């Protein structure tokens, strides 16, 4: 994956993370709180994976 593609995917996934936090913060009852947190945590893990992949490519692995 090229650098530009990583940036585009990173921005889209970052937007999903913010949406997940908004879902969790606006939940008064029901399953939206855990769903929002799962969306946020999954997005955060994916962002860190993108960062790792970028630096691995820089090292030539």
Summarize the structure in words.
The chain has 61 residues and is mainly α. Helices cover 85% and strands 0% of the residues. It has two helices and no strands. The protein has helices at residues 3-26, 32-59. α1 runs antiparallel to α2 (32-59). The mean pLDDT is 90.
Distance between the termini: 14 Å
The helix/strand series, from N terminus to C terminus, equals HH
Kindly state the number of beta strands.
0
Contiguous runs where pLDDT drops below 50 for at least 5 residues = none
The helical percent reads: over 70%
Shape: elongated
Radius of gyration: 14 Å
Strand content: under 5%
Strand count, sense and barrel status of the largest sheet are: none
Q: What count of helical segments does DSSP give?
A: 2
Class from secondary-structure proportions: mainly alpha
- What's the overall average pLDDT, rounded? 90
Key phrases:
single chain, 61 residues, mainly alpha, 2 helices, 85% helix
Write the layout of secondary structure elements.
Elements: H1 3-26, H2 32-59
Summarize the structure.
This protein has 61 residues and is mostly helical.
